[in-house]
Amino acid sequence: MNWKQIHGKTCVELNSQNHQPGEADAFFTTSLGMPLRSSTADCVPILFATRDGSAIAAVHAGWRGTAQKITRSLWQKISILAPAADWVAVLGPSIRPCCYEVSSDLVEEFAATFPEYNRSDITPQTRMLDLARINLLELKALGIKDVEVMPHCTYCSTNPEFFSYRRRTKLGLNEGKLCQWSTIMRAEFN
Description:
By secondary structure, the chain is an alpha/beta fold. It has six helices and ten strands.
């Protein structure tokens, strides 16, 4: 499978290993043996599965996709597969508000986009954005209650250490374009 993540809200259903989805940031499938993955280096990877394993999804939620409500875009497509109570999700390692300083304008954009959430959920400290918390609140608002959030910050975590685009560029590290892969797949067990 070949695709390009574009930091948007495009969601694609995948049915075969040969599917070429093009530009997208969220995928879902009911097919067995179809791995779905999200490539991140500070953005929030979100993996979904139905409790019975009949459907799965993977999301790359950067600040642009989060601002465009990518989880809601995906939900419009996967909600027909099972009710919200039948879905579980995990938010993987991402840059956290301890290290994710953004412009005041971006904070204001998020506050305007998500007026239903407390400002302290969006920015727990001045100009520090909490993308994981915003995506968690989005999932809860959709009715997906069983969500695990991995607490690791890709920027400052040392045990384990993760790849961080922001750390790499800020410190001038020559790591190439390394990233984390968050992967989920439906499989049959005998």
